[in-house]
Amino acid sequence: MFQKVFNYKPAEHDYRIWLVINPAVWLIPIFALVLLVAIAVHAMVFAMPEYSWSKADSMEPTAQTIAAAPTQTQKTE
């Protein structure tokens, strides 16, 4: 029973997905869906204020970011 599972060789059997999915028909729609997902993820991330380019210059530091900033000490010799 487990002999078939342990003898699986992906390099020899991975071509079989293309026997079910015809690339001439489905490759461009798959690429289109991947592009839409990538655009949706980027739109969601850029909508967040900490990742937005347009709001980065106009954001004022809050008390939390000021408190978290490292302090600089000067050496006196």
Defining key terms:
mainly alpha; 77 residues; 57% helix; 5 helices
Mean of all residue-level pLDDT scores: 78
Q: Care to count the β-strands?
A: 0
> Percent helix among the residues?
55-70%
Main sheet attributes: strand count, strand direction, barrel closure: none
What spatial form do the alpha-carbon principal axes imply?
Answer: elongated
Gyration radius, to the nearest Å?
A: 26 Å
> Termini, distance in Å?
78 Å
Task: Explain this structure.
With 77 residues, this protein is mainly α. It has a domain at 21-53. Helices cover 57% and strands 0% of the residues. It has five helices and no strands. The longest helix is centred in the middle third of the chain and has 25 residues, at 23-47.
Task: Spell out the blueprint of helices and strands.
Blueprint: H1 2-6, H2 10-13, H3 17-20, H4 23-47, H5 63-68
Quickly describe the structure:
The protein has a domain at 21-53. Helix content is 57%, strand content 0%.
